[in-house]
Specification:
This protein is an all-beta fold and 52 residues long. The chain is 0% helix and 54% strand. A hairpin with a 2-residue loop joins strand 2 and strand 3 (29-31).
């Protein structure tokens, strides 16, 4: 299984906080290790990815 490195921008829809992380894309899933926002939001995000 080959994983591709990607740059992921996560923006919280609740408070507007923005996180820029590196992650790995494997099939249809992106793994960055991100769990939740500083405002305790764990579900409502805009996620954008770009190749490194």
């Amino acid at each position: 299984m080959i994983s591709v490195r990607v740059k992921v921008t996560i923006r919280c829809k609740v408070c507007g906080e923005k996180f820029v992380l590196r992650g790995r894309r494997e099939k249809d899933k992106i793994d960055t290790g991100f769990k939740q926002c500083l405002c305790n939001n764990a579900n409502d995000f805009d996620v954008e990815e770009r190749a490194l």
